[in-house]
Task: structure prediction
Amino acid sequence: MVKRILYLKGGTAVQEAKDLFPRKGELLDGGPDKFVLGVIHYLGDAEFRLATFGAENQAEQVMGYEAVEYALRPPHVHGWRRRWAFLKGMSRFFVETVRYKPTQILCGLDGPTGVVTWFAAKLCGARFVFLVHNALVLPSVSGIYRASNRLILKRSDLVLAHGPFLRQQALAGGAVANRVIEFQNGLDESHGALIDALRKEDAAEAAPQTLIYVGRVEEDKGVFDLLQAFELLAARYPVRLKFVGGGSAVAPLRECAASSPVADRVEVLGAVPFPEVFSHLKSSLVAVTPTQSRFPEGLCKTVLESYFVGVPVIGPDYGPFPYVIEDGVSGLLYKPDSVADLVKTIERYLDQPELRATLKDGAIAAGLRNKKPELGFHQAVRDVLLPAA
Result:
Protein backbone atom coordinates (compact mmCIF):
# COMPACT_ATOMS: atom_id res chain seq x y z
CA MET A 1 0.00 0.00 0.00
CA VAL A 2 1.30 3.42 -0.98
CA LYS A 3 1.73 5.72 2.01
CA ARG A 4 0.70 9.32 1.50
CA ILE A 5 1.18 12.00 4.15
CA LEU A 6 -0.63 15.34 4.02
CA TYR A 7 0.57 18.09 6.36
CA LEU A 8 -1.76 21.09 6.69
CA LYS A 9 -0.28 24.06 8.53
CA GLY A 10 -0.18 27.83 8.67
CA GLY A 11 2.27 29.69 6.48
CA THR A 12 3.05 29.61 2.76
CA ALA A 13 3.54 26.09 1.43
CA VAL A 14 5.31 26.87 -1.85
CA GLN A 15 7.91 29.19 -0.35
CA GLU A 16 8.50 26.88 2.62
CA ALA A 17 8.95 23.95 0.25
CA LYS A 18 11.56 25.86 -1.77
CA ASP A 19 13.38 26.91 1.40
CA LEU A 20 13.14 23.74 3.46
CA PHE A 21 12.76 20.66 1.23
CA PRO A 22 16.37 21.01 -0.01
CA ARG A 23 17.43 20.92 3.65
CA LYS A 24 15.95 17.46 4.18
CA GLY A 25 18.10 15.61 6.69
CA GLU A 26 18.40 18.48 9.17
CA LEU A 27 16.73 18.00 12.53
CA LEU A 28 16.19 21.05 14.72
CA ASP A 29 15.08 21.25 18.34
CA GLY A 30 14.09 24.91 18.11
CA GLY A 31 13.15 27.62 15.66
CA PRO A 32 10.27 27.90 13.19
CA ASP A 33 11.71 25.45 10.62
CA LYS A 34 11.64 22.43 12.91
CA PHE A 35 8.12 21.35 11.99
CA VAL A 36 8.47 20.84 8.23
CA LEU A 37 12.03 19.54 8.55
CA GLY A 38 10.95 17.09 11.25
CA VAL A 39 8.17 15.65 9.09
CA ILE A 40 10.10 15.27 5.83
CA HIS A 41 13.05 13.67 7.60
CA TYR A 42 11.01 10.58 8.49
CA LEU A 43 8.91 10.20 5.33
CA GLY A 44 10.85 7.23 4.01
CA ASP A 45 9.27 6.25 0.69
CA ALA A 46 5.94 7.94 1.45
CA GLU A 47 4.42 10.48 -0.91
CA PHE A 48 4.04 13.89 0.70
CA ARG A 49 1.93 17.02 0.27
CA LEU A 50 2.45 20.23 2.24
CA ALA A 51 -0.72 22.36 2.24
CA THR A 52 -1.52 25.86 3.47
CA PHE A 53 -4.29 28.42 3.05
CA GLY A 54 -3.43 31.84 1.65
CA ALA A 55 -4.27 34.59 -0.81
CA GLU A 56 -4.03 32.68 -4.10
CA ASN A 57 -3.96 29.18 -5.53
CA GLN A 58 -0.46 27.85 -6.09
CA ALA A 59 1.08 24.41 -6.55
CA GLU A 60 4.63 23.23 -7.18
CA GLN A 61 6.67 20.06 -7.10
CA VAL A 62 9.86 20.41 -5.09
CA MET A 63 12.28 17.48 -4.80
CA GLY A 64 9.50 15.04 -5.63
CA TYR A 65 7.12 16.37 -2.98
CA GLU A 66 4.04 18.54 -3.46
CA ALA A 67 3.40 22.02 -2.09
CA VAL A 68 -0.11 23.41 -2.48
CA GLU A 69 -1.69 26.69 -1.37
CA TYR A 70 -5.44 27.24 -1.44
CA ALA A 71 -6.95 30.71 -1.90
CA LEU A 72 -9.16 31.25 1.13
CA ARG A 73 -8.26 34.91 1.77
CA PRO A 74 -7.78 36.75 -1.53
CA PRO A 75 -6.67 40.39 -1.07
CA HIS A 76 -8.99 43.32 -1.75
CA VAL A 77 -12.09 41.12 -1.61
CA HIS A 78 -14.78 41.94 0.94
CA GLY A 79 -18.34 41.09 2.02
CA TRP A 80 -20.13 38.17 0.38
CA ARG A 81 -17.35 37.82 -2.22
CA ARG A 82 -14.85 37.12 0.55
CA ARG A 83 -17.14 34.51 2.11
CA TRP A 84 -17.69 32.95 -1.31
CA ALA A 85 -13.93 32.82 -1.90
CA PHE A 86 -13.49 31.08 1.45
CA LEU A 87 -16.14 28.45 0.65
CA LYS A 88 -14.74 27.93 -2.84
CA GLY A 89 -11.19 27.52 -1.58
CA MET A 90 -12.23 25.20 1.23
CA SER A 91 -14.27 23.05 -1.17
CA ARG A 92 -11.29 22.78 -3.50
CA PHE A 93 -9.06 21.74 -0.62
CA PHE A 94 -11.60 19.12 0.52
CA VAL A 95 -12.07 17.59 -2.93
CA GLU A 96 -8.36 17.52 -3.74
CA THR A 97 -7.54 16.01 -0.35
CA VAL A 98 -10.06 13.19 -0.81
CA ARG A 99 -8.72 12.54 -4.32
CA TYR A 100 -5.17 12.48 -2.97
CA LYS A 101 -6.20 9.60 -0.67
CA PRO A 102 -3.75 10.25 2.16
CA THR A 103 -3.07 7.46 4.62
CA GLN A 104 -2.30 10.01 7.32
CA ILE A 105 -3.14 13.67 7.81
CA LEU A 106 -1.20 15.94 10.14
CA CYS A 107 -3.52 18.89 10.79
CA GLY A 108 -1.96 21.99 12.32
CA LEU A 109 -5.05 24.19 11.95
CA ASP A 110 -8.05 24.27 14.27
CA GLY A 111 -11.65 25.51 14.12
CA PRO A 112 -13.90 24.91 11.09
CA THR A 113 -10.94 24.26 8.76
CA GLY A 114 -9.80 21.54 11.14
CA VAL A 115 -13.26 19.96 11.05
CA VAL A 116 -13.26 19.92 7.24
CA THR A 117 -9.82 18.30 7.28
CA TRP A 118 -10.95 15.70 9.82
CA PHE A 119 -13.99 14.86 7.69
CA ALA A 120 -11.76 14.41 4.63
CA ALA A 121 -9.56 12.06 6.67
CA LYS A 122 -12.58 9.97 7.69
CA LEU A 123 -13.74 9.66 4.07
CA CYS A 124 -10.27 8.51 3.05
CA GLY A 125 -9.82 6.19 6.02
CA ALA A 126 -6.73 8.21 6.94
CA ARG A 127 -5.23 8.45 10.40
CA PHE A 128 -5.92 11.96 11.70
CA VAL A 129 -3.32 13.64 13.91
CA PHE A 130 -4.23 17.01 15.39
CA LEU A 131 -1.26 19.31 16.06
CA VAL A 132 -2.26 21.86 18.70
CA HIS A 133 -0.39 25.17 18.56
CA ASN A 134 -3.06 27.64 19.76
CA ALA A 135 -5.42 27.85 22.73
CA LEU A 136 -8.57 25.88 21.99
CA VAL A 137 -11.19 26.59 24.65
CA LEU A 138 -10.31 29.95 26.21
CA PRO A 139 -13.29 32.32 26.66
CA SER A 140 -11.70 34.58 24.03
CA VAL A 141 -11.98 31.80 21.43
CA SER A 142 -15.21 32.19 19.41
CA GLY A 143 -18.09 29.78 20.01
CA ILE A 144 -17.88 28.14 16.59
CA TYR A 145 -14.15 27.54 17.07
CA ARG A 146 -14.62 26.07 20.56
CA ALA A 147 -17.34 23.72 19.26
CA SER A 148 -15.20 22.74 16.26
CA ASN A 149 -12.16 22.12 18.44
CA ARG A 150 -14.11 19.93 20.86
CA LEU A 151 -15.30 17.77 17.97
CA ILE A 152 -11.77 17.43 16.59
CA LEU A 153 -10.25 16.67 19.99
CA LYS A 154 -12.76 13.93 20.74
CA ARG A 155 -12.43 12.29 17.32
CA SER A 156 -8.70 12.59 16.59
CA ASP A 157 -6.62 9.44 16.46
CA LEU A 158 -3.81 11.35 18.14
CA VAL A 159 -3.30 14.86 19.54
CA LEU A 160 0.13 16.48 19.70
CA ALA A 161 0.09 19.40 22.14
CA HIS A 162 2.82 22.04 22.06
CA GLY A 163 3.59 22.42 25.76
CA PRO A 164 1.81 21.78 29.09
CA PHE A 165 -0.83 24.50 28.73
CA LEU A 166 -2.03 23.12 25.40
CA ARG A 167 -2.05 19.59 26.80
CA GLN A 168 -4.38 20.86 29.54
CA GLN A 169 -6.50 22.64 26.91
CA ALA A 170 -6.75 19.45 24.84
CA LEU A 171 -7.88 17.40 27.82
CA ALA A 172 -10.37 20.11 28.85
CA GLY A 173 -11.76 20.04 25.31
CA GLY A 174 -12.51 16.33 25.47
CA ALA A 175 -9.41 14.62 24.08
CA VAL A 176 -8.80 11.06 25.24
CA ALA A 177 -5.91 11.23 27.72
CA ASN A 178 -3.90 8.33 26.28
CA ARG A 179 -4.09 9.90 22.83
CA VAL A 180 -2.51 13.21 23.89
CA ILE A 181 1.25 13.60 23.47
CA GLU A 182 2.99 16.70 24.79
CA PHE A 183 6.07 18.00 22.99
CA GLN A 184 8.15 21.04 23.82
CA ASN A 185 10.29 23.68 22.16
CA GLY A 186 14.00 23.30 22.74
CA LEU A 187 17.28 24.92 21.77
CA ASP A 188 18.99 23.71 18.63
CA GLU A 189 22.71 22.93 18.90
CA SER A 190 23.66 25.51 16.28
CA HIS A 191 21.73 28.20 18.14
CA GLY A 192 23.32 27.04 21.38
CA ALA A 193 26.78 27.66 19.89
CA LEU A 194 25.66 31.14 18.85
CA ILE A 195 24.40 31.87 22.36
CA ASP A 196 27.70 30.69 23.88
CA ALA A 197 29.51 33.15 21.61
CA LEU A 198 27.16 35.93 22.66
CA ARG A 199 27.83 35.20 26.34
CA LYS A 200 31.58 35.60 25.73
CA GLU A 201 30.97 38.96 24.10
CA ASP A 202 28.94 39.99 27.17
CA ALA A 203 26.74 42.06 24.87
CA ALA A 204 24.20 42.99 27.52
CA GLU A 205 26.72 44.99 29.56
CA ALA A 206 27.72 47.24 26.68
CA ALA A 207 24.23 47.84 25.26
CA PRO A 208 21.81 50.61 26.29
CA GLN A 209 19.02 49.55 28.60
CA THR A 210 16.47 48.20 26.16
CA LEU A 211 13.01 46.71 26.53
CA ILE A 212 12.37 44.27 23.71
CA TYR A 213 9.37 42.69 22.03
CA VAL A 214 10.01 39.64 19.82
CA GLY A 215 7.25 37.94 17.85
CA ARG A 216 4.48 38.54 15.35
CA VAL A 217 3.72 42.25 15.16
CA GLU A 218 -0.07 42.27 15.37
CA GLU A 219 -2.55 44.46 17.22
CA ASP A 220 -3.87 41.61 19.37
CA LYS A 221 -0.33 40.68 20.35
CA GLY A 222 -0.34 43.94 22.31
CA VAL A 223 2.34 45.86 20.43
CA PHE A 224 0.44 49.16 20.61
CA ASP A 225 -0.22 48.59 24.31
CA LEU A 226 3.53 48.22 24.85
CA LEU A 227 4.27 51.40 22.89
CA GLN A 228 1.71 53.28 24.99
CA ALA A 229 3.21 51.90 28.20
CA PHE A 230 6.70 52.92 27.06
CA GLU A 231 5.56 56.47 26.38
CA LEU A 232 4.31 56.67 29.97
CA LEU A 233 7.62 55.31 31.28
CA ALA A 234 10.08 57.16 29.10
CA ALA A 235 10.11 60.43 31.04
CA ARG A 236 11.37 58.67 34.18
CA TYR A 237 13.73 56.04 32.78
CA PRO A 238 16.59 56.26 30.25
CA VAL A 239 15.50 53.14 28.41
CA ARG A 240 14.84 52.24 24.80
CA LEU A 241 12.19 50.04 23.16
CA LYS A 242 12.79 47.61 20.31
CA PHE A 243 10.26 45.57 18.29
CA VAL A 244 11.57 42.55 16.37
CA GLY A 245 9.32 40.52 14.07
CA GLY A 246 7.14 40.66 10.97
CA GLY A 247 3.37 40.93 10.77
CA SER A 248 0.44 42.92 9.45
CA ALA A 249 0.91 45.71 12.01
CA VAL A 250 4.56 46.52 11.25
CA ALA A 251 3.74 49.51 9.03
CA PRO A 252 1.07 51.00 11.36
CA LEU A 253 3.38 50.48 14.35
CA ARG A 254 6.21 52.28 12.55
CA GLU A 255 3.87 55.19 11.83
CA CYS A 256 2.80 55.39 15.49
CA ALA A 257 6.38 55.12 16.68
CA ALA A 258 7.53 57.85 14.27
CA SER A 259 4.89 60.26 15.56
CA SER A 260 5.51 59.39 19.20
CA PRO A 261 7.10 61.97 21.53
CA VAL A 262 9.79 59.35 22.23
CA ALA A 263 10.33 58.41 18.58
CA ASP A 264 14.12 58.66 18.91
CA ARG A 265 14.08 55.82 21.48
CA VAL A 266 11.87 53.33 19.62
CA GLU A 267 13.00 50.89 16.91
CA VAL A 268 10.65 48.78 14.77
CA LEU A 269 12.98 46.41 12.94
CA GLY A 270 10.47 44.11 11.26
CA ALA A 271 11.40 40.50 10.49
CA VAL A 272 14.99 39.35 10.98
CA PRO A 273 16.65 35.94 10.37
CA PHE A 274 15.87 33.67 13.30
CA PRO A 275 19.47 33.33 14.59
CA GLU A 276 19.62 37.13 14.95
CA VAL A 277 16.75 37.02 17.43
CA PHE A 278 19.11 35.73 20.12
CA SER A 279 21.57 38.62 19.73
CA HIS A 280 18.73 41.15 20.00
CA LEU A 281 17.42 39.41 23.12
CA LYS A 282 20.85 39.07 24.71
CA SER A 283 21.51 42.81 24.41
CA SER A 284 18.21 43.68 26.14
CA LEU A 285 17.33 44.33 29.75
CA VAL A 286 14.01 42.50 29.70
CA ALA A 287 11.63 40.94 27.16
CA VAL A 288 7.97 41.98 27.23
CA THR A 289 5.20 39.79 25.77
CA PRO A 290 2.07 41.99 26.01
CA THR A 291 -0.39 39.62 24.30
CA GLN A 292 -4.04 40.61 24.70
CA SER A 293 -6.39 38.01 26.20
CA ARG A 294 -8.47 37.88 22.99
CA PHE A 295 -5.53 36.25 21.19
CA PRO A 296 -5.57 32.43 21.58
CA GLU A 297 -1.91 32.17 22.60
CA GLY A 298 -0.81 28.57 22.93
CA LEU A 299 2.90 28.70 23.70
CA CYS A 300 4.87 31.94 23.63
CA LYS A 301 8.19 30.73 22.23
CA THR A 302 9.74 34.14 22.91
CA VAL A 303 9.67 33.34 26.63
CA LEU A 304 11.87 30.26 26.19
CA GLU A 305 14.13 32.01 23.68
CA SER A 306 14.64 34.81 26.21
CA TYR A 307 15.48 32.31 28.95
CA PHE A 308 18.08 30.66 26.70
CA VAL A 309 20.08 33.92 26.75
CA GLY A 310 19.34 34.65 30.42
CA VAL A 311 16.82 37.46 29.90
CA PRO A 312 13.74 37.66 32.19
CA VAL A 313 10.25 38.11 30.73
CA ILE A 314 7.25 40.27 31.64
CA GLY A 315 3.96 38.81 30.43
CA PRO A 316 0.20 38.74 31.09
CA ASP A 317 -1.28 36.49 33.74
CA TYR A 318 -3.46 34.38 31.44
CA GLY A 319 -3.34 31.34 29.16
CA PRO A 320 0.10 29.77 28.74
CA PHE A 321 2.11 32.56 30.38
CA PRO A 322 1.81 31.37 34.03
CA TYR A 323 2.97 27.95 32.78
CA VAL A 324 6.28 29.35 31.52
CA ILE A 325 6.81 32.55 33.55
CA GLU A 326 7.33 31.84 37.26
CA ASP A 327 6.23 35.13 38.79
CA GLY A 328 9.02 36.66 40.86
CA VAL A 329 11.45 33.90 39.86
CA SER A 330 12.11 34.03 36.10
CA GLY A 331 9.91 37.00 35.24
CA LEU A 332 6.87 39.04 36.25
CA LEU A 333 3.17 38.70 35.45
CA TYR A 334 0.72 41.57 35.09
CA LYS A 335 -3.05 41.93 34.75
CA PRO A 336 -4.02 41.07 31.15
CA ASP A 337 -5.19 43.92 28.88
CA SER A 338 -4.18 46.55 31.44
CA VAL A 339 -1.68 49.10 30.18
CA ALA A 340 -1.65 50.68 33.64
CA ASP A 341 -0.63 47.41 35.30
CA LEU A 342 1.93 46.75 32.57
CA VAL A 343 3.47 50.16 33.35
CA LYS A 344 3.55 49.38 37.10
CA THR A 345 5.16 46.00 36.46
CA ILE A 346 7.88 47.42 34.22
CA GLU A 347 8.49 50.18 36.80
CA ARG A 348 8.86 47.55 39.50
CA TYR A 349 11.43 45.75 37.39
CA LEU A 350 13.40 48.90 36.57
CA ASP A 351 13.31 50.28 40.13
CA GLN A 352 14.65 47.19 41.91
CA PRO A 353 18.19 46.07 41.00
CA GLU A 354 18.04 43.14 43.43
CA LEU A 355 14.83 41.90 41.81
CA ARG A 356 16.44 42.17 38.36
CA ALA A 357 19.38 40.09 39.54
CA THR A 358 17.06 37.45 41.03
CA LEU A 359 14.99 37.23 37.86
CA LYS A 360 18.09 37.01 35.69
CA ASP A 361 19.32 34.04 37.73
CA GLY A 362 15.86 32.48 37.42
CA ALA A 363 15.80 33.04 33.66
CA ILE A 364 19.21 31.37 33.27
CA ALA A 365 18.02 28.38 35.33
CA ALA A 366 14.80 28.12 33.30
CA GLY A 367 16.80 28.22 30.07
CA LEU A 368 18.99 25.34 31.23
CA ARG A 369 15.91 23.29 32.24
CA ASN A 370 14.22 23.79 28.88
CA LYS A 371 17.28 23.56 26.64
CA LYS A 372 16.74 19.89 25.82
CA PRO A 373 13.10 18.78 26.22
CA GLU A 374 12.16 15.19 26.96
CA LEU A 375 10.22 15.08 23.71
CA GLY A 376 10.70 17.57 20.88
CA PHE A 377 8.64 17.73 17.72
CA HIS A 378 10.88 15.64 15.51
CA GLN A 379 11.12 12.92 18.18
CA ALA A 380 7.33 12.84 18.34
CA VAL A 381 7.17 12.43 14.57
CA ARG A 382 9.77 9.69 14.63
CA ASP A 383 8.49 7.73 17.60
CA VAL A 384 4.74 8.27 17.41
CA LEU A 385 3.43 9.45 14.06
CA LEU A 386 5.07 8.11 10.99
CA PRO A 387 5.75 4.47 11.94
CA ALA A 388 1.97 3.97 12.16
CA ALA A 389 1.23 5.79 8.89
